[in-house]
Amino acid sequence: MRARPSLAAPFLLPALLLPALGACGGGDEITMPPLTPEPDDSRFAADIGAVSPQESLPARLTLYKYLRAIAAGSTAACTYTSADFDRARFGERGCEAGFRRARAGLGPGDVTALRRVTVPAAEKGPDGSYTVRHEDLKWRGGPARLQPKPGHPPHAFFLDTYTIREYEGRWVLDP
After folding, report:
1. Whole-angstrom distance, CA of residue 129 vs CA of residue 134
2. Per-residue pLDDT averaged across 67-94, rounded?
3. Is 171 helix (H, G, I), strand (E, B) or coil?
4. 3-state SS class at 150
5. pTM (whole model) above 0.85
6. In sequence order, what are the residues at sequence separation of 6 or more whose Cβ sits closer than 8 angstroms to the Cβ of residue 2?
């Protein structure tokens, strides 16, 4: 059996669409408020100050090498810090003198964590420096503690926020 096209079909579609088109209005009245992100919505917060991974690579690599040198027990970590950072974190004697004492305050779990840490992102500041928050570091297995072993002075290595800037052609941690 063959179906015959209906003669009413060409007139039926416009008749159904006409009321829908009239519902669009045309008035200047706004019926829905503008969409704004919620303050707690982290999808938008990640874009603020974020830069491409390639752009922040030299700064992130500096922090990565600094943390890995600490894990290795190497004073090479001091080559990734500015003189101001050394004085602020290790006192007037500087990083080289205070490194061994500060390193002794790390527990075995902290050293293991530092061997596995990565620096996936950094935020660019208005002055061209980059910042990385301690909680933004990626730890395989578990994070290093911000608090030292009992009986040791506060960690000179761990900060809530790391600031990395270019100084005389090289990237260094700065207070």
Report:
1. 16
2. 88
3. strand
4. coil
5. no
6. none
